[in-house]
Amino acid sequence: MPSSLVVLHVAAGSVALASGGVALYSLKGAKVHRKSGMLFVLVMMAMSVTGAVMAALKPEAISVLAGALTFYLVTTALLTVRRPASGARWIDLGAMLVALAIGIAGIHFGFEALNSPAGTKDGFPPPPYFIFGSVALLASLLDLRMLFARGVAGPHRLARHLWRMCFALLIAAASFFLGQAQVFPDPIRNLALLAIPVLVVLLLMLYWMARVLFARRYRRA
Question: Helix axis angle, 61-81 relative to 126-149, nearest 10°?
Fold first, then answer.
């Protein structure tokens, strides 16, 4: 494995967790949120691409899926609030097809793991494959709905941006705190303890989703 790729992946992941945390906690739409969110998108793109490449070299299908899904999520989340001047519909269509491909691959790999003698694929059980595949398929259906509706507006636009950014952060947090538990000191190397930051991200995502969808101040966004 090229050492430069590993260093870039680790550095991007560290910055992503920090900037993502700031963006998640800060007031939505404020300057701090916009600046930290843009940094989060850039480093998440770098992290997901390097992670997927390293996983493909192993090979490790689950990490390839996670990297591809993360890249798709942060890209479409950004496009939701920063539309290009032209060609947006074709970009949205292409993104939907990417999500569909990730979803189909995830479900396929999940059944491969389920039907294998060891009950795993590349050392991983079926649930992670099914989770990533289901999220990707759900995202592709929401993309299709947006294409038919010719866009998304108001609180639903903010919700689309929010859940995609948050789920990408959730993947990064789970990959670091749970997937790399061996790098933590023995006193805190406990999955229940390391799961707390991941649960915090999930709970904050649900909180902001509820606030964006039901609070009056976001109705005209």
Answer: 30
Return averaged pLDDT per consecutive 10 residues of the chain, 221 residues in all: 74 87 79 88 92 88 94 93 72 94 97 93 92 96 91 86 93 85 73 86 88 68 50
Residues 6+ apart with CB under 8 A from 34: none
- Whole-structure pTM value: 0.88
**Domain residue extents for the chain:** 3-218
Q: Max alpha carbon distance in the chain (Å)?
A: 54
